[in-house]
Amino acid sequence: xxxxxxxxxxxRSPRSKGxxxxxxxxxxxxxxxxxxxxxxxxxxELHTHExxxxxxxxAGCERFEVAGVQYAASSGDVCMLNPDxxxxxxxxxxxxxxxxxxxxxxxxxEMVQDLTGYxxxxxxxxxxxVERDVELSQAFTRAHRALEQRRVxxxxxxxxxxxxxxxxxxxxxxxxxxxxxRENRAVSVAKEYLAADVSRNVDLATLAxxxxxxxxxxxxxxxxxxxxxxHAFLIDRRVRLARKLLLNGEAPATVALVTGFADxxxxxxxxxARIGTTPGQFARMC
Length: 286
Known about the structure:
Distance between the termini: 67 Å
Number of helices: 11
Number of domains: 3
Strand content: 15-25%
CATH class of the largest domain: Mainly Beta
């Protein structure tokens, strides 16, 4: 049995009109394969991947076989397959929706090193196939959607690195050691960089390099010092600037562009969540 990419698996498998599939690659993660799909009839034949398979069921139930053992995954379950595992997949009852990523061994090893500070001695291995973990399932779904929407690189990166760190620690046997006292300076550098130009669409790897910490270390240190992750800090600073520009009479569409939001709707959601009113309403009141 030959190993296949997920794109090859989907190409070789006919689907019904009730099935929906969105497949894409993320260049920032070594062309990471990502899949968001709904299957009502589609059945996967037995196959393997040279990559990991990690994701969650968002609705319904999928039944699948791994190395001769039957599993069922429902909404709120997190699924993890190591490379080379023989598996299939089929819908239960009305079908299922799921979100998946297919990280390479190199990418998972890189994430482990980022998390622990040292390269893994061998290929990292997940100890579970399916785990009921609603909180982690919801976090993965949010991170996956952030990648899909391709709006704010830093937000998507922080969410994905955070959820992958938790998956690795909970189900991969990876532990994160305590770090040195240089965190405060590193966080200050990161904050200064973000605040200097809030319109920049910086990604997490760039920000971590500027701060001199690993990506997961920066997320933890940033949360500890500021009470929020880096992308939330950036959005907060964008809303602050938007508020000033609106008070100066700038049009909301112009403000959204100047402050680095993906579009006016994106600014409206962030502004209302923090100020309690939309930018247009705020401008009229003031």
